[in-house]
Design brief:
about 80 residues; mainly alpha; about 0% strand; disordered N terminus
Length: about 80
């Protein structure tokens, strides 16, 4: 990891949340609501740029919508 890219927020290992434009997040939810996948990975984000795929995946994990193994949570299903 590049030095200085994470800030501490009082808890060890907790960094700055990843930024994803709301429109990207909303469009992703709209796409998966049609056919909800059991596993969330880059293959379900084909309409976004490679950079946004990484940011979106990190944001979904940070918010607890996807497990560390890539499984979609019940919360993500309800959002979609």
């Amino acid at each position: 990891m590049i030095e200085g890219t994470r800030e501490k927020s009082g808890k060890e290992g907790v960094g700055v949340p990843p930024y994803v434009p709301f429109s990207t997040f909303r469009n992703f939810l709209d796409r998966i609501s049609v056919r909800f996948p059991s596993r969330i990975d880059h293959s379900v984000m084909t309409r976004t740029s490679k950079t946004l795929r990484f940011q979106l995946a990190a944001a979904l994990r940070y918010m607890g919508l996807v497990s560390s193994s890539g499984s979609a949570t019940e919360t993500l299903a309800r959002l979609a």
